Amino acid sequence: MGEAAPGNRGGMATGAESDHCSRWAGIRPSSEATHETEEENQMHRLLPKLSYANVVATLALCLALGGGAAFAAGKIGADQIAGGGVHTKNLRQRSVTSGKLALGAVRSNQIAPRAVDSGQLAAGAVGSAQLGREAVGTAQLGREAVGSAQLGREAVGTGQVAREAIGSAQIGKGAVGSAQIGDGAVGPAQMQFPVSLVASPRGGARTVDYPVASYPLTGASWPQRAGSVALLVGTFTAEVSMVSLNECDVQIEFGIGEGFSGGTLGVATVTNLSHSENQVLTGAVPTLPILADAAGTTELTAQVREFGGCVTPSTITSTDLRVIELG
Fold this sequence. Notes:
Helix content is 13%, strand content 28%. It has three helices and eleven strands; from the N terminus they run H-H-H-E-E-E-E-E-E-E-E-E-E-E.
């Protein structure tokens, strides 16, 4: 017994080992009871309170915080998102602004019907280059939205105006003259009180025999409706003899039918007062009404005469007439 070394005896723990185990077991060695540090004192107070649930919960919290920080530290690029992976339901309202859109990224097939109105458009953002052919019609325009200031020169022609779209209420006073009306553009159908040209009688040169001579006309017949009224207008030219006394008169007389069987319409006269020379004179045919009691063909006829102090026979050189039907 007296020979035993001051080491391990019979498998018993040494003083140092015993103290180490005692600390982990929560037993305070008597020799150090008064020399325990503050850190050891806190550890001793915590150890009895630790449990499996506490440890697992603490580890889960650390993993969650550490994993979230690692995830937030990285960035997700467009190449890491599958095509069609992000939908409108995955985006917060107003989270995508114009600064986040690439030029040309939004096309018409990405926009819902009526999604864009005037409130979403900047001033001057939409011009003719942004509008498709026939994209804007009357249904898209507000009342009086388009005036002369909005139209380019020659922008509106007959192809852009609907039938009967323009009437007297749309035309300013004096805005339309002969220069604005094409040849043959206005006919009876375009007039409030229909007027139509039904005949253009003409006559050539004819010596005026004393006392009277017939004067042939061409293009002098036309169909006339019952109860309608036609007007004869025009001019004639004659070379009138000089006079020996007073004056020389040349007269052309108009009627309906051969020998004026349908009645006499009226006369036109030119007069020469010169005693020294013949004169070429043009006279106006007064407006002569032609009435039709029954429907049928109306034929205009004429005869010429001279009277007064004529020295030589006079000559009718030409006649240019028009017959206009009213109504």
